[in-house]
Amino acid sequence: MMTPSAFHFAVFVTSCFLVSAHNSAERLYNNLLLNYTKGVRPGIESNCSLHLEIFLKVSSLLNINAVEEVMSVNGFFDMFWRDERLVWNKTEYDGHSSIMIDPSLLWTPRILLVNPARRFQIFGTYSSEVRVQFDGFISWTAGDLIETNCNINIRNYPFDIQTCDISIAPFGYLETEVNQTSSMTLQVDMFPDGNGEWDLVQTNTADWYLSGYKFSNFTLQYKRKYQFVLTTIIAPILILNVMSLVVFRIPPNCGERISFAITVFLSYIVYLGIITENIPKTSSPMSLLSLYLMAKVSVSACITMATVFIVQISVKSPNTPVPERIVFLMSMSSKRRTARSKVEDPAENTQDDGKRIKTKSDRAEIIANVERESKSSLIARCGNLGSKEPTWEEVAIYFDTILFFFFLFVMLLFIVLLFTFVCANLGPGQI
Ligand SMILES: *[C@@H]1O[C@H](CO)[C@@H](O)[C@H](O)[C@H]1NC(C)=O
Ligand SMILES: *[C@@H]1O[C@H](CO)[C@@H](O)[C@H](O)[C@H]1NC(C)=O
Ligand SMILES: *[C@@H]1O[C@H](CO)[C@@H](O)[C@H](O)[C@H]1NC(C)=O
Ligand SMILES: *[C@@H]1O[C@H](CO)[C@@H](O)[C@H](O)[C@H]1NC(C)=O
Ligand SMILES: *[C@@H]1O[C@H](CO)[C@@H](O)[C@H](O)[C@H]1NC(C)=O
């Protein structure tokens, strides 16, 4: 059991020991900085280039602003180099093997962001103290919000892959003076899978040179998470496709037809606006999706005009004769239809007869009779159509059917074209 006085003595001895250790650290600090000139870079006396190692640690991807073409990440640079002026003998300083010194008192590299989104940036505002080892090795960490300019390619929106560079250089120094090597790590535990909108696909580093200066690129490649756009934009557009065809199934004399067609037309314009808001305002290259939408807007305008045309036909006065050519066209298609039903009918009738004999039920007989009668009367009516003068309403219905199938074909063709182009632009296994 420790008595209170023994406890006080222990505290006193420990603090004495701490004071003496502090003294050696202060001595070391003062001696190191005594003849140090921070404006002179290390290695200049031995006439060799300073080897600077830079590790970029990206801790979080904040955002890729596709409209302004800006990538924002939070990251810090770990920098390592050697300063031959900052060496000491450990045994002379109570075994102190490293010491922390304020960066403003030492030479530190000024790392410039070469491709900033806004203005040029030198890392160092948010930095640690400099750790100096007895053998002159120095490590320093400076972190910040990094906002770089990033060329966004939205041709395949929303199945696009974006590549953004963080390009840096030791500000002002030639490669023969400061020669940096770069590498990059991601803080995987902090940064599991990109952010809500983007997946990180891969990272890379590369060097490039310009008139004696050496630049280092840290490249991040992202893939858009397309599910959101697929459900909120592409699926509604495909549904609109079908809706735009429904207009040919509304009776021609119904005035609502034109407003329905115009509503669908306006819906396409709204979606075109939504997509334009989400992508950069560049024309090289254009997004395939907006080109597709533009084409759909034109088709929708054609549908609206066709609708107006059909409504106009259907309300024509019955005194105006239907032109010969249209009558001929209609009789051609109706003849083909009657011919087909005439070929099919006898077989059906004999089948019906056989069934009726087998069941021997009076009720079934009556029903079958009624059916056969109605069928034959239908045939008679259809047959008459060819000879009888068609009314304008029948002409309108006839054109409705033709236009319905025509625009159905156009819709399917456009969808196939869109998907062919998108798939041709995507590499294998990108979706
Ligand atoms: C600093 O420079 C002075 C004068 O040149 C010299 O006497 C002294 O030993 C130097 N101190 C250290 C720690 O190098
Ligand atoms: C440094 O080295 C270069 C080439 O090796 C030489 O031309 C230059 O004179 C040297 N400078 C000094 C100060 O020694
Ligand atoms: C460090 O200092 C101790 C004591 O002054 C000395 O014995 C030793 O040789 C020195 N070591 C080096 C590498 O100079
Ligand atoms: C490095 O990044 C810059 C800016 O994005 C770019 O212009 C340059 O081509 C890149 N160089 C390499 C080698 O990737
Ligand atoms: C810079 O470092 C690289 C790799 O360490 C090396 O290949 C290159 O020759 C160095 N450049 C100079 C000017 O020393």
Question: Could you explain the architecture of this structure?
Answer:
It is a single chain. With 431 residues, the chain is α+β, with helices and mostly antiparallel strands. The protein is built from 7 helices and 12 strands. Helix 2 (227-246) runs antiparallel to helix 3 and helix 3 (256-278) packs antiparallel against helix 4. It is rod-shaped. Mean pLDDT is 81; it is low at 344-359 and 378-386. The protein binds 2-acetamido-2-deoxy-beta-D-glucopyranose (5 copies). The site of one 2-acetamido-2-deoxy-beta-D-glucopyranose (NAG) has 5 residues, from strand 10. It is found in: Membrane. The chain crosses the membrane at residues 226-248, 260-279, 291-311, 402-427. Residues 26-202 form the Neurotransmitter-gated ion-channel ligand-binding domain. Its main location: membrane.
